[in-house]
Write a structure and sequence with these properties.
5 helices, extended
Length: 136
């Protein structure tokens, strides 16, 4: 009994979602890093920080960025979508972590600063590793 070639059938299905393995791994790493930086920023500001809440928030924002904002951009344009995204982010931070509007803005700024610091630390670690490998 001959089995049909499913690879040809699957390759003909039009899929517009970027659901490849590298994309999923990158999304998972992004959610973990974003969750960590958000948790740290909320702890610094003094909100009710919980790492699981920060991870769920990052997962929710990743979902919104992938599926909701592209649809809204078609109707509103990129500028209004960015403004809507910032207000949505602030409102969600206020409701997730029980902080006020000014603390939510402070959390946003601190998350950016902590992320930049982590990037510089990662770049430094890579450079030190490359120097160590070059000296072997």
């Amino acid at each position: 009994m001959a089995y049909p070639d499913y690879t040809k059938i699957i390759s003909q299905i039009p899929i517009n979602l970027p659901l490849s393995i590298p994309f999923l791994i990158g999304a998972l790493v992004e959610i973990l890093i974003s969750g960590f930086t958000l948790w740290l920023a909320v702890k610094m500001v003094g909100g009710k920080a919980n790492f699981l809440k920060a991870l769920l928030f990052s997962l929710l924002m990743k979902f919104i960025n992938l599926f909701v904002f592209p649809s809204i951009t078609v109707f509103l344009g990129i500028f209004l979508t960015i403004i809507l995204g910032l207000f949505l982010w602030l409102i969600l931070v206020m409701s997730f972590f029980k902080v006020g509007f000014l603390k939510a803005i402070g959390i946003a700024m601190l998350q950016v600063i902590v992320s930049i610091i982590l990037v510089f630390l990662a770049i430094g670690a890579v450079i030190i590793s490359l120097i160590g490998i070059a000296n072997l």
